[in-house]
Specification:
Layout lengths: L3 E2 L2 E2 L2 H14 L8 H12 L4 E4 L7 H6 L4 E5 L2 H8 L9 E3 L11 E6 L10 H14 E12 L10 E8 L3 E10 L4 E10 L2 E10 L3 H11 L1 E7 L13 E8 L9
Parallel strand pairs: 3-4, 3-6, 4-5, 6-7
Antiparallel strand pairs: 1-2, 7-13, 8-9, 9-10, 10-11, 12-13
């Protein structure tokens, strides 16, 4: 089901950013070492198969597939998947079109993963819990779920808003404008690009969650935390970590979540 907030729908982010996504994020230092990402995912996936939620243009799925892991994906944006399909090997990765808020696939997976804050694209706690429950249904014996996400920092916002310069040069100015709802744990943002030939807007809306809430939602869905690191190199997670790599496994005693 495609959730809409006014004119913003589930596919809006991907559809509006697809043509520049790889140029902006294909090798962005903010995303960390891609080789370390693939090494960790491959080591956890074992014999596979693996499922990527929000597979997008294949930034992670393609090198993971090249490492010998059978990969499938889910994505709601046809524009993003078209970019994946145009890349070498992209046509060999099965992709289910639709939201990963809830899904039903025939296969079971040793690894289900979501990277680069994409889980927060599910814009309500209900959707996020529904997704976690779907993940539990699709994990095979010994399978795990891995998430890469930022650690929320509400202090970034002043009176519920933020403007941040991204790039300023002779031909282009780009910046981000965001509003923040502390109670709803949500942000509404625009990545604005201004050039002589016009203005481009790249909107994104998210509902973030702190690690404690993620662990609680995971428990409600039938998962328990196995590992948490500060980055793909398995460095220790601490109170000052800017992001986390978290791994949950199926809880053999799910009744404890309600007990």
């Amino acid at each position: 089901m495609d959730r809409s907030d006014g004119g913003y729908q589930d596919a809006t982010y991907g559809d509006r950013i697809a043509d520049v996504y790889d140029a902006w994020y294909g090798s962005s230092p903010a995303l960390g070492d891609l080789a370390a990402t693939i090494d960790l995912l491959a080591s956890i996936a074992g014999a596979g198969p693996a499922l990527e939620l929000g597979i997008g243009t294949g930034r992670v799925a393609l090198p993971l597939s090249a490492a010998g892991i059978q990969v499938q994906g889910i994505d709601v944006s046809q524009a993003m998947v078209d970019r994946l399909r145009a890349k070498p090997g992209g046509d060999r990765i099965p992709v289910t079109m639709g939201s990963f808020a809830d899904f039903s696939l025939a296969d079971r997976f040793s690894l289900i993963y979501v990277v680069f804050n994409t889980f927060f694209g599910l814009r309500s706690q209900e959707q996020q819990i529904a997704c976690l429950r779907a993940i539990v249904r699709h994990l095979g014996p010994g399978g795990v779920f891995l998430m890469e996400a930022f650690v929320p920092d509400p202090s970034r916002f002043d009176r519920g808003q933020r403007i941040s310069a991204i790039r300023v040069d002779e031909d282009e100015v780009s910046f981000e404008v965001s509003t923040h709802d502390l109670v709803a744990q949500s942000t509404v943002s625009q990545h604005v690009v201004i050039r002589e030939d016009g203005i481009r807007l790249h909107p994104v809306r998210i509902r973030y969650a702190h690690v404690a809430e993620l662990d609680l939602m995971a428990r409600v869905a039938g998962l328990r935390l196995r590992d948490r690191w500060a980055d793909w190199d398995r460095s220790a997670f601490a109170s000052d970590s800017a992001k986390h790599i978290s791994v949950w496994e199926v809880d053999p005693d799910p009744d404890r979540a309600s007990g």
